[in-house]
Amino acid sequence: VQLQASGGGLVQAGDSLRLSCAFSGRTVNNYGVAWFRQAPGQEREFVSGMFWAQSSTKYSSSAKGRFTISRGNAESTLSLQMNSLQPEDTAVYYCAASSRGKVPQTADTVDYWGQGTQVTVSS
Known about the structure:
Elements: E1 2-6, E2 9-12, E3 17-24, E4 32-38, E5 45-51, E6 57-59, E7 67-71, E8 77-82, E9 91-98, E10 112-113, E11 117-122
Parallel strand pairs: 2-11
Antiparallel strand pairs: 1-3, 3-8, 4-5, 4-9, 5-6, 7-8, 9-10, 9-11
């Protein structure tokens, strides 16, 4: 399984960004997929996730109401729409996948990681 994340950048507080993650190598239907982020000096934390074959989604408390996870327009692409970005959202964002039948919500339940994309929000 390979994950390729893209879409990061430098934005101002209140702006929006859309991250994308291309999943390849296996059929994505049986995987739980998620976005994590890691700020300098901090642990990698769960942001949002979904089980590809189902419609239910999960969000961290900081992401709920501002971020939306979805299947992207391209086949086997995961998207994260981030609105009302704040400086505390600054981090490297990673897409992740798990073959364990559920959404990975901790780093130790992730089987595959993408390479990360930097999101920087200026005040």
